[in-house]
Every structure is written in C-alpha cells, then in structure tokens.
Amino acid sequence: MQGVGFRPFIYSLATRHNLTGWVRNTSRGVEIEVNGPAQDLQSFLNAIRTEKPPLARIDQLDSGPCKSNSFTGFEIIASQAEPGQFNPVSPDVSICPDCQAELFDPTNRRFRYPFINCTNCGPRFTIIKDIPYDRPQTTMAGFTLCPDCQAEYDNPLDRRFHAQPVACPACGPQVSFFSGGKVLAEREAAIKTARQLLKQGKILAIKGLGGYHLACDPTSRAAVAELRLRKKRSDKPFALMAFNMDAIERYCHVTAEESSLLQSVQRPVVILKKRPDCAIVLEAAPFQATLGFMLAYTPLHLLLLEPGDDALDVLIMTSGNQSEEPIAYLDDEAFERLSPLADGFLVHSRPIHIRVDDSVARIIQKKPYLIRRSRGYAPDSIQLAEGIKSVLAVGGELKNVFCLTRDDYAFLSHHIGDMENYETLRSFEDGIAHYERLFRIKPEIIACDLHPNYMATRYAQQRAEAGQLPLVQIQHHHAHLASCLADNSWNSEEPVIGLSYDGTGLGTDGAIWGSEVLVGGYRGYQRYYHLTYVPLPGGDAATHHPARVALAYLWQAGLDWEFDLPPVMELCENDRTILQSMLRAKINTPPTSSMGRFFDAASALIGVRQEASYEGQAAIDLETLVDPTERGYYQFDVKENEFNPAPLWQALLKDWRAGASQPVLAARFHNSLVELNLELCSRIRKQTGAKVAALSGGVWQNRVLLENTILRLESAGFQVLIHHQVPSNDGGIALGQAMIAAKTLENR
Known about the structure:
The protein is of the alpha/beta class and 748 residues long. It is 33% helix and 20% strand. Strands 4, 5, 6, 7, 8, 9, 10, 11, 12, 13, 14 and 15 form a 12-stranded mixed β-sheet that branches. Strands 26-27-23-22-21-28-29 form a 7-stranded mixed β-sheet, with helices on both faces. It is globular, with a radius of gyration of 27 Å.
C-alpha cells in the first residue's frame, strides 16, 4: 500500500543490518533486493513482519535467492510502473501521537498548524485523484513545498519522507471563518472565533477530512433543539466528538475494548453506554441509553476542542447535510446547502476530492462490530479466501455501499447512503468511476438486487446492457448470507444456516422478505423457514407507523382490536376503519415476513412507540428497555416452513393485561426469538447436518438479540459466524452480491 512509509522503513532496516541493495515501488507492491550474510538476511526478513510501519499491511511476502549486485550501500530507487497493475490506496488515518505532540509544542515550526501530518497519519483517500499516489495526483498539487518541507520529503530517514500531504504554515492550506458570505477571521483567529461561538450556543458548519460537519454544544438543550429543527432530523441520535478519553469517560462507561477502538487509527464513532449522571441533553439521542462518541481525529478538530475557558471539549459533530442528502464536501455546495442550517462556517483551503462520512461501530464479543464502514476503513480491501472474477456489485437501496473485486481483493466503497435522490445517485456513480480508476478494475460481471425499482438495480441493468456484460440479480437475503461468509473468509462448500433478519428485501415469490432462515452458500440456497406472512399496510410507508403494523399482526392472528390496546388508542376510529378495509380487501397491503416490522409491532403493542421518524426506531427503543435479569419467553407455532407468532401475541397481551412492566415484556419478546433461533437451527441440523450458523441483516445490530443468540447457539454446539469487517446491515450486502455473482458465472 502506497503512502504508509514502507520504503523508508526498509531503507532504515537494511541500513541497521548492514545490508546493501535497493527497494522500489512497483504497480503490484514493493520489491527489495538485499545482499549480506545469511544470518543478517534472515533477521532482516523477520523484522519486516514484526516491525512494519503502523499503517502497513502485508498480505503476502515472497523471498528467494538472487545474484550479488554491485551496490555498496542501500538505496531507494525509482518506482516501476506496470500497465494494468495497482497498489491499494490507504484510507484516511487519524493524527498520530508524534504529530499531536508537535501540534502542541511551542518550539516546533508546526505549532498549532491545523494540517500537520506525516507518513503515519493524515488524509489519504479523500485527497487522491489517481494513482500512483504522488503529490501531483492529489488535491495538494496546488501547494508548492517550501525548502524545509521539501527537505523532509526527500529524506528517507525522516518520517515525512514522501508523505504526499506534507505541509506547514509557510506553504500549506489555511483555515478561515465565514459568516454572512464574508471572511471574519483567518488562521488561529478563525479557530478562536469558532470556539467562542460554539460555547455561546451557535451552530457551525465545519469542514473536516471527508466533508462538512454541523457542530453545536451537546449540553445546551436550546442548541440541540435548534439543530434538529434546522436539519429536519426529529429523533435520530447525533454523533459526538471529544478532545480525549477523559472527556468521553465523564459521560459514558467505556470498556477496555471500546477504549482501544476509540483510539484506533480509524477513530470511528463508537456506541457507548451512558452514565446515569450524563450531562449531555437527552435531545442529543432521544430515548436512548447509549451515545455515539468519536475522538478528534484531525489536528483541526483537536484545536477546536482543546480544553479552555473559551471552548467546549465535547461537541455534537453530525454530517453536514439536510436529512436524506449526501454530506456536503465542496465549498460552494456547502455554502449553498448549509447556510440555512449554520450560523457560521469554519473552512479550510485543502480541497476534498471525494466525500466520506464517519464510520460507526460497537464492541461485540470484545471485537469491533461495524454499523457503518466508511472513513478510516474504506477503501481498504477485504481479502477473500480465493481469487474471483472482476465483479461490480452495486449493493442495495438503503445504506448503499458498492463493491469491486480484483483477484482475491474486494474493495467496498465508503458509505454512499440511502438512494432516494439525484444527489446520492450522482455520488454513487462518481464513486464507482473513481474506484475503477484507482484500482484499475474493468468489471466482467455486474451484480445487483432483485428489486427492479432500486436506483442501484437500474444503474446495473443499464451498465450491463451498455457494456454487454453478464448481469446477475441476487435475492437480498442470500446476499446477506454470502456477505457474512465472505467476511469470515469462508471457502467451504459445506452448507451454512443463514439467519438473515432485516426490514425488507424482495423475495422470489414477490413478497417482502425479512426473517429468512436459509441453508446454503455462495452457489445457492434453500429457504427453510420464515415468519408467517402478514399484510403490510401502506407497504414501505409502514416503517414509520408501528401502530398500524401491530394491528395488522393482530388481524392476521385473529385477535380483536380491543380499545385499550396502545396501538388501537393511537388511531382514530376513521383511521381504524380504513385500515380494516385495506386488510380485508388486500389494498396496498403486500405480504411480508419482515423481522424488522415484527419488532415494530411488539414495540407498539406494549406501548413503547406508535410512530417512528426513522426505520428501526421502534425496535431500538424496545431493545433499550430490556430487563437483563428476565428469563421468560413465549412460543411460536412452527409448522412446515413457517413460524407463526400468533401464540406469542396471545401470551404477550395476557402478560400486558396482568400488569407486566415494559422492561419485562421487552425482555420476554427478545428471549422468545433467541429460543426460536436455537429451535430452528437444531431442526435444520437434524435434517441436513449443517452445524454452522451465519447471522446477517440489519436486525442483528440489536445487541441483546445478537449476544444471547450467539451464547445459546454456541452452547448447543453450533459454530456461529458474525460480521466484523463489514456491517451486518445493507452496508455489507454488496460483498455478498459479488461473491454470489462470481460463483454463478463459474456455474454457467
């Protein structure tokens, strides 16, 4: 991978071992030729793996004898280009400890410079236009190095050797503060102005690494409420940024694994449990027992959050956009789109070539579990168990991420977002073109979802037709299963039980699937079990109306809509009459087996949430309430290939009428699904011998369900595969699509 300091590392290592020879970059990797005593050569080889630079990843190291050369020392020689070959591109990386120390060192020439970086840190993917990764091919091309920076850049023993974004106050980008279309302050004064205004409760747009954030004081109810009003984001939690771990630990409990993830070079937003005395206002994450925190990952963020009387060391730092739009990253675009939202702009002069949102993760089983894979991770490759054809997999409609493969590498894109408007479609198309150029990939196959109306599917169809390429349309939940297998480098033909649980995916029978118990692998699957179909009132619109979904479930189960039930009380008599007519006449009520809507119905029935401002909100609220000490559960009626929840609804409503609390009912509902998962997997094991279960789909972001299902299955002798490199939600399905498409072409 270029730009991670590997050649100067080899130079230093060879010099230390008194070896002669050379090192160079090629389009396929790094080549080294060294001469010296056998013992020193072996020590050198061992040290390459054990002492490699922080950002380097060695996928393969081949070595063999060579003839003695005439070198009397060790050199870094010119790179060698090879047509059609490529080197992986590094993701953007958080500021390293060395640069952070220099940032706050008054004796250093880069003291308080907002764009300090070196070979071990700083912008990468967001500034690269093309490879090879040289300064003229980045957005730093317009900044000519001063003599001091040039000397560092040319010195193999300096940690800024060939660091393409290297700069200093004399020759690099600068910051400015804008308000009302005018520059009010520059450089240090711009940062000071921003700090003071944030402390006063203002909302600012701040240009970061991969785009603009909107920032405000998370301890000010008025500021947070105003941000929600302007951004048109009613309840969805906001991300928070802190100066250091001490600041985060004032508001949240942090485990050792969470601390490690927060301080990793990726610096994702990490979901943490709130402290009881947390001073961050409830409006920052309504109805939640958790907060999403990230540490400051650029020098500009550190200067903005540096503790002091004039500033806050914790800020809301949410994507700079209106709800459902892509994050703004071009300055003119940001001024146009964000001016109604922000009281001022902290802007810098380093152009961003491609927008990238923050990544989001949590810890499961003491390992990272990604919810959004973007900054810090993309475009780092996923290494596959074997080489496959070059595939373009376009992903789904929600949380879109596309995937391109080459040999045994899968390159998943940064988070694109929900494909609901032209701006997101344009970002999607630009992203595909950029990845194909960077990684020198010419797709031989196009893969997409079955759903004909997805924007990504239409793009795939047009692209395949124009390029006369094979098009493979893949069932959504099969893609989830394959994604989990690829995430775990699965290369066995042994059938796997896939518990693919999510909100929606078009089934092969035309129904909306979402609770799919599959058995198979990359080459195919059989659908063994699913929730009994229920009519979904209003189709996709039902995601915002849990009360209506709950009443549809009661209607399906033959249970009365008794007037004191929470979802019945939510709807007026006229609405209930219309809903009954829709259900009886089957008007705009497509059948669904959605596990996401099943959670929504439970949430509504026990009075947790009747309306939702974003998909999954009712289920998240239900999970938040779970009493961890409760062990009770309800039964499903499992017949043939369905599991019918009618007995569960009857028992749950009986407990509700008996006065059981919401935390107890929420726990029993979750426990019921855990026991069901064990029962279904056990039945399949008896029938097929399959003993591996893969858990994929957005519902598996539910920590209570995930951890307890893993515990029960493993206790019963199952091997359980979960996601760690890509999200379990639709942000990971492109990887599964790519694997299925490649195997499908093999079969043909």
